[in-house]
Amino acid sequence: MNESVDQQCTLTSTVADLAGRVPMGLRYITVCGLLAVAHPPAIALAEEPYVGIHVTILDIRNSTGKVACALFESSEGFPKEFVKSATNIGMLEIKDTRARCHFLDIPPGRYALAVIHDENLDGKLATNWLGVPTEGYGFSNDVTATLSAPSFEDARFSYDGQNLDMTISLNY
User: Fold this and answer.
1) Is the dihedral of CA 70, 68, 115, 50 positive or negative?
2) Average pLDDT per run of 10 along the chain, which is 172 residues long?
């Protein structure tokens, strides 16, 4: 039994001697390397963890209401029929006149985005008696509406299945 204790003490002192001889910088690099191998999910989260279309909404005039982002994969219903025709829809809280929507697990293809600032929370773009929008709106490619909403083709963009960061400016 004493031999076992002696062997442990010898092993402990040998490891301590070796550690004392290794420069501090090399020890630091070794420990960091071991942590990186032991905990890869923690390091993976430092990057954008989810592949998809990430949209930053600019020029929101206030933090009242919500922002609705709608992703369309065809011209059917674009851009007015969010609920009926959009492939994906997201309703977002506005924080300090900022919002960002994420569409994840989207297959590669051609899409168009329509965004509204639903200030009165009625689920649609409010307009005046002439049909002119009174709430903010925007489209992919920052296409602007002149006398009517832009076409799907004007707002269309290609998505290759990788991370895509976009910005859309709202018009009021």
Assistant:
1) negative
2) 45 42 47 42 48 96 96 95 92 94 96 97 91 94 89 97 96 94
Two structure tokens written together for 144: 């602007």
3-state per-residue secondary structure call for the chain: CHHHHHHHHHHHHHHHHHHHHCCHHHHHHHHHHHHHHHCHHHHHCCCCCCCEEEEEEECCCCCCCEEEEEEECCCCCCCCCHHHHCCEEEEEECECCEEEEEEECCCCEEEEEEEEEECCCCCCCCECCCCCECCCEEEHHHCCCCCCCCCHHHHCEEECCCCEEEEEECEC
- Reduce the secondary structure of 91-136 to three states and give it as a string: EEECECCEEEEEEECCCCEEEEEEEEEECCCCCCCCECCCCCECCC
> Considering the entire predicted model, what is its pTM?
0.70
